[in-house]
Design a protein that fits this description.
Elements (H helix, E strand, L loop, with lengths): L2 H14 L44 E7 L5 E8 L5 H12 L6 E5 L2 E2 L6 H4 L6 E8 L3 H7 L24 H15 L2 H20 L1
Parallel strand pairs: 1-5
Antiparallel strand pairs: 1-2, 3-4, 3-5
Helix pairs in contact: 5-6
Length: 208
């Protein structure tokens, strides 16, 4: 028997058998048993491809060290080796902010990091920028200005001349007061008005 003859006889046999489901068959979906919704699983994140550095090239990162509290500090280190230790970062902050190293804590994701940690251990392989927080232990703000025997601002020596109540009678005093208030409130008009109120109140007190 040829293949064609076999196929014809096989199809004839199948067509002679009754169909289990008629072509016009329909079923109410409400009659189906309840089933839970099938949720597709989340796709796993594809790992970033590693960038191949040119022979002899060294990876560098930009490191930002920032303190949101007093004293406000922000140190930016560009093109640094990721092999820098946390202790190296503390020494850099100490040099720029004039704060003792033992008063500085470096934070990563709001948690203190040990001095022996290396930047490379705290950042991803593809990261080119990283930000660390700075926590200054209490009292370091005042220590920082005088820890090396120097202060950022030297207090002016006492002026020779008028003193006491006589100073209030000089125009230089009220001019300095206007300048201070304008700088403090960041508004020249408000500073002028406040200085005028102080001067008027002083005159009334002196007249009394």
């Amino acid at each position: 028997m040829s293949e064609l003859s076999f196929a014809e006889s096989f199809l004839t046999t199948l067509s002679s058998r009754p169909s289990k489901i008629s072509p016009s068959h329909a079923e109410d979906p409400k009659s189906y048993p309840p089933r839970g919704a099938y949720i597709l699983p989340k796709l796993s994140k594809t790992l970033p491809k590693r960038r191949k550095l040119a022979p002899g090239a060294q990876r560098t990162v930009t490191i930002t060290l920032r303190s949101a509290r007093n004293p406000p500090i922000e140190v930016v280190l560009k093109q640094q080796s990721p092999l820098l230790s946390v202790l190296d970062l503390k020494e850099e902050v100490s040099a720029q902010a004039n704060i003792p190293v033992d008063k500085i804590k470096i934070l990563h994701r709001r948690k203190p990091v040990g001095d022996a940690k290396v930047v490379e251990e705290l950042v991803g392989e593809e990261d080119t920028e990283v930000e660390f927080g700075i926590m200054v232990i209490g009292g370091a703000a005042s220590v920082g200005t005088g820890s090396h025997g120097k202060s950022e601002e030297q207090l002016p020596s006492a002026a020779v001349g008028e003193s006491g109540r006589e100073v209030f009678g000089t125009e230089a005093f009220w001019s300095d007061l206007r300048g201070f208030l304008a700088q403090r409130v960041k508004d020249a008009g408000e500073g002028e008005r406040a200085a005028a109120l102080f001067r008027e109140a002083w005159k009334e007190k002196g007249a009394a």
